[in-house]
Amino acid sequence: MSSSGAQPSIFSRIVAREIPATIVAETEHIIAFLDVAPKAPVHVVVTTKDPQYQNVVELAAGNPTLLAELVAVAERIAAERTNGQFRLVFNTGVAAGQTVFHVHAHVLGSSTPTDSLGEDSLGAL
C-alpha cells in the first residue's frame, strides 16, 4: 500500500480533476479515461478512485469486490469500443512495466473487427 506522505499519483490527480483527461466511464469507485500514449487503436486506462492499492495483487487481496467492479467497467468499455474483443493488462512492478503505482488496467483493442492487436501493443504500457 502507498505511504501516507507520498505525493498523489497522476491518476489521483485525474480523479480530483487537477489534470485533464478524456473520461469515458465513471462509477462511484472507478474512473476510466483514454491513455495519452495509446499502444492500440483503443487504449483506455481503468483505475480505482481509491489510491491505497498499488497493484492488482494488493487490490485482489484487500478488496476483491472493487477488483470485480474494475473488471466489469473494463468489460463494459470493451463491449462499447471493441465489440467485446480486448486485452485487459495489469502491470505489476517496475520490471513488468508499471510506472504509476496506483492500481490500474489497460483495455486494449480495436474498433474494427478486421484489425488485430500486434505484439507491440504489449510493450511498455
UniProtKB/TrEMBL annotation:
Question: Residue span of the signal peptide, if any?
Answer: none
Q: Which domain of life is it from?
A: Bacteria
Family annotation (Gene3D superfamilies): HIT-like
Q: Give any GO molecular function from the UniProt entry.
A: catalytic activity
State the name under which the record lists this protein: HIT domain-containing protein
List each copy of the HIT domain by range: 10-118
**SUPFAM superfamilies, per this entry?**
HIT-like (SSF54197)
Q: Which organism is it from?
A: Cryobacterium ruanii
* Native organism taxonomy: Bacteria, Bacillati, Actinomycetota, Actinomycetes, Micrococcales
List where the protein spans the membrane: none
| Catalytic residues as annotated in Swiss-Prot or TrEMBL | 104 (tele-amp-histidine intermediate)
Q: Name one Pfam family in it.
A: HIT
Motif Histidine triad motif, residue numbers = 102-106
